[in-house]
Amino acid sequence: MYKRDDSVRTFNVWQLVCFGLLTTPLAMGGLAMAMYLPTYYAVDMGLGLGLVGAIFVFGRLLDIVTDPLIGHWSDETRSRFGPRKPWMMAGVLGFSISVYLFLAPSGAIGPAYLALASCLYFLFYTILDVPYSSIGLEVSPHVHERSVLAGSKAVFQVVGAILAAALPFIMGYSIGEALQVIAYAIIALCFIGLMLFLLFVPTPARTIDSPRLTTVEALKFVLSDRRYRYLLGSFLIVQTSNSLVSGLMVLYVIHIVGAAELVGLFLGILLLSSAAFLPLWIYISKRYSKKTSWMAAILTCTIALALIPLVGRGDVTAAIIISIIVGSTFGSDAIMPTSMLADIVYEKEQEGKNRLGGLYLAVKNSVSKLSFITPMGLAFPVLGYIGFEKTGAAGPNAILTFFFFYSALPILLRLIALYVLKTGPDFIVEQKRNSVSG
Known about the structure:
The protein is mostly helical. Helices cover 77% and strands 0% of the residues.
């Protein structure tokens, strides 16, 4: 178990709010990109699921390269404002422009426009998110508070996702109209969140006088930790499972449950249950360990996913119950790996003189984005080939194919993740009483 030290805390409630708020516009863009934009560009704009999936996969592959570079450059930045804030300010400006281009295209567009807009979106998302999230790894010397910080971001992530999910249905807009409103809301919240972050969030100040590391040297160092490699592998497997479930949920509600009018309700249930069960996973992590909490969530979701094929057309209540259980585990999938990574980063930075949090986080983000390739690069093209978005569950082969991607494959992936975590190293980091010093 962890050795607890609850006598000192870095953040009060208001500072937690100011720390987490900037996650809201990022989450709004992320949900719009995952839930609405593939179908919007494929169907409404007439580009087709296969082409849209290929373009999005290309953007994610670009991220796998740019994330570690930006993370490392952020680590090595030395300015009077600190290493992260200049990147965050540039990121907010670029992200706002790219969000407008990506979410609110004017008139008919073609594949070239989608490719450019999506690549700009992915790039500036990284420029904003990696330095911002890196501060969350560095700012607290307290083991349990790192989970609270990750939980703060997770709550605001849910808030942003709910806002993005609810707008089309609350306001009665079409998807295209709603995406424009979402774009404006993201831009406004980016600037508000940045201002509050800069004014009220206490950030660590470390004087770095060691020689600069090259990107290759820094990568070799962070990947030399066996715990980190196991954490990355487990995270990739679980996120791939989650990407399949979240990416195909709209098709599940429309074609399997037969409740197209309840898509917004299902998305809201998934997100709200994710936030509602966060205290449970944080309690388990404090009482036992973060690894135990995450494994419990993985097993719970696996059981729920096994029930999905039992749900048929019109079984709305059963589908809602399963969505609540699945959603309840997403919070642990989000905050426990981040908190475990914060423990590793803090420990490593106490041992050495280099700042490495940005690169640690960026490699983890690259892994997360790699998981996006499975639904976009595999599930969408296969379902597009059999015409699922047009004919739905019209035949046993179509139903079996869909359930393979929505239930069977995610279950298999989560069982593999459980095995990796069970047989991997212990992630427990003892609580230290020292504080972050400059």
